[in-house]
Design brief:
Layout: H1 11-24, H2 28-37, H3 44-62, E1 75-84, E2 87-96, E3 101-107, H4 112-124
Antiparallel strand pairs: 1-2, 2-3
Helix pairs in contact: 1-3, 2-3
GO molecular function: DNA binding
Keywords: DNA recombination, DNA-binding, Transposition
InterPro entries: DDE_dom, IS_Transposase, Transpos_IS6
Length: about 130
Amino acid sequence: MNPFKGRHFQRDIILWAVRWYCKYGISYRELQEMLAERGVNVDHSTIYRWVQRYAPEMEKRLRWYWRNPSDLCPWHMDETYVKVNGRWAYLYRAVDSRGRTVDFYLSSRRNSKAAYRFLGKFATVPASELPLA
């Protein structure tokens, strides 16, 4: 079923108005002025009704676009310089979204070889099977 059937304005105009309102947080009257500048004469109360009707559905369909890219990865890598038994070393840690250590690697050198050695473990293991250290 077409939710825009029987509407006075075209689908694209309604979707743009709802998107502009939700994304930029402008008032209905400001949005009315913006649309009027573009040749679309619509009342602010009509825009309000559009937002009430179409915004929840738009949010539901677009939610996965708005995710933070860091949320897509189940863990993050952290690297620091620590003293172990009187000697300085580099500690590489994989930390999950709750801050728990997933795995760690201690290296005397800070170079790409050490980092790749640590990250190589995670390339072959699915995220659901990563152990908690």
